[in-house]
Amino acid sequence: MAASYGRFWDQYELLNPLERHHYEIIREGLPCHLYLDLEYQVAYNPTADGDGMIQQLLRCIRSALKDMFGLELDHSWVYELDSSSSTKFSRHLIIRIPGMAFCSNIHAGCLVARALEIAASDGESLPDLQIHQDPDGKQASFVDTGVYTRNRAMRLIHSSKAGKTSTLQNTGRFGGASKTSHEMFIRTLICNAGGLVGVRSWVVWQAEGLLLFNMKGTRWCGNVQREHRSNGIFFVIDLQASHKIAGISDCQWSRATLPWGSLLHPGA
């Protein structure tokens, strides 16, 4: 059976909560958003501060995004789901970077690994992200790094594990504040990354040493810090200094000092 997200949701929300045991398959090699599975046993970690550990982890994620991609993490990008019980702390974080996605969950896992390296290099941060995983005090990471393998199954919001009653619910923090159940369902789908980003057309201005890519699959604009409803997005590369890449959109048109005259219809 196949269905759109909307049609699936229409049926899903009608189910008895005890019958919801649904998962999303993070398919190998497909784009996805950043996601994290966080957990520990309460009995083995009686003094653990889950919320504090998440804040510390997000600081490390922020540093990793800045270090690897030059991005500044905004907490509105973060969606938090909780299925904790009296015996186990369990949260999922889904981080949706506007206009972007990771090439695959393997790539997402690389960023998480970098964040944990940053935590390990900070003598004060490392203990905050370590938990005891058994009665003998054996230490492990607060972050489950085993969820970045191919075709991994991740539980959907409002679903529980078979035989369990704890369902994943919106905590109402970060980007989940004031979101409806349907909005959270869409926002927390890890592979709901939209169409693939690509190049619709391109043009070279040889005299000026510039290359322009007219992009498809994204309308994210750094000028207004959100996606446009209709404006096109371009990448302009300085061929004389190839490391200099700038993004530009129709809303910056009048301020751009580029030889637009050679294009018949910019932003088409």
Give a written overview of the molecule:
This protein is α+β, with helices and mostly antiparallel strands and 268 residues long. The protein has four helices and 14 strands. It has two domains: 5-187, no CATH class; 198-262, no CATH class. 19% of the residues lie in helices and 25% in strands. Strand 13 and strand 14 form a beta hairpin. The longest helix has 20 residues, at 50-69. The protein starts with a helix and ends in a 19-residue tail after the last strand. It comes from Apatococcus fuscideae.
Order of helix and strand elements from N to C terminus: HEEHEEHEEEEHEEEEEE
Beta strands, count: 14
Alpha-carbon Rg, integer: 22 Å
Specify the overall morphology.
globular
Q: Give a quick account of the main beta sheet: strands, pairing sense, barrel closure.
A: 4 strands, antiparallel
Instruction: State the end-to-end CA separation.
Output: 37 Å
- Number of domain units: 2
Mean pLDDT: 85
Low-pLDDT parts are: 253-268
Strand order of the largest sheet: 2-4-3-8
EC number: 2.7.7.102
GO molecular function: chromatin binding; DNA-directed DNA polymerase activity
Protein name: DNA-directed primase/polymerase protein
InterPro entries: PRIMPOL
List the keywords.
19% helix; alpha+beta; EC 2.7.7.102; 268 residues; DNA-directed DNA polymerase activity; PRIMPOL; chromatin binding; DNA-directed primase/polymerase protein; four-stranded antiparallel beta sheet
